[in-house]
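Quick note —
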Amino acid sequence: PRIHWMGEHRAEETRLRQVLAAPAMRQAMAFLEQEQAHPDDILQEWLGICDAYGPESDEIYRSRHLYKLFRIYGLETLNIDEAWNVIGVRPGTGHGPKLVLNAHEDVVNLWPKDQPIEAFVSDGRVWCPGASDDIIGLVQMLEVLRALNRANVQTVGDIWFVAFTGEERESRGAHRFVAENYPVNLDWRRGDI
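Predicted structure written out below.
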């Protein structure tokens, strides 16, 4: 069994190297490296998401803000579900497996959602509720989307970008997403992840 697994592992590694060597992927990686050299846009996006406060169980402001960003970056079949999850799809070219990229948007309740938040940078850090749990995950997810778009990477399967709500308590957003999309839209047996 170990030899069989090692063989599968090598095959996956070879396939991964082929994908990463493709011109569009090299272009996407170059975009990411360029963005790291000029982080101002990423930082402003991070601060904007922070300022759209999203306390657990009351994430509507942040959900609406993320919806707008998803729309700006060209996601399709875009919606906010009843749990306030924001779901957008980057369509693939065929019937390949779907990939779900996600991060959670809510933070531990510190004050009411109507109280203004003004995120700021000090000592090389972003200061706001949830800046690293998990707004940084949202920023990274958006960065992947921008890189795919900039390099015009075409995937065979759809890529779903999902901002979950309710993670700080019982993961209600993730539960709702799974209940609504599995097995109808996602098929783990086909390779959807």
